[in-house]
Amino acid sequence: xxxxxxxxxxxxxxxxxxxxxxxxxxxxxxxxxxxxxxxxxxxxxxxxxxxxxxxxxxxxxxxxxxxxxxxxxxxxxxxxxxxxxxxxxxxxxxxxxxxxxxxxxxxxxxxxxxxxxxxxxxxxxxxxxxxxxxxxxxxxxxxxxx
Length: 146
Prior knowledge:
Blueprint: H1 2-18, E1 24-30, E2 34-38, H2 44-51, E3 55-56, E4 67-71, E5 82-86, H3 94-98, H4 101-104, H5 107-111, E6 114-117, H6 125-141
Parallel strand pairs: 1-3, 1-5, 5-6
Antiparallel strand pairs: 1-2, 2-4
Helix pairs in contact: 1-6
């Protein structure tokens, strides 16, 4: 556990350093009829990213307070340098989302700065470390978009 906690803390420190890149990050999940933009405020995993200094899009959430539902025609409502998508099996897969014209034209998607994200809180430092290290590696590849 000590080694896993050390990896977790190191990855979190790297995220804090990467925040200096000034990347705007959008957290999305898809269904056949809508794209959902998640807020970092209500989901502990996403709040961790925001607390690390990452600039996470803060949508106008619905009454539940977790996300803003958008029709696919309005997928371009927010400007982001990076899109993190819900990779769970119940969410619309990346290839299906790319078939939505407005989504496919998003600058982050067109540039390939779209990466999977976790949506369920890990229960161990090992799992947190794995996920944060993957995010760090992806954000290192990303750049600000015009």
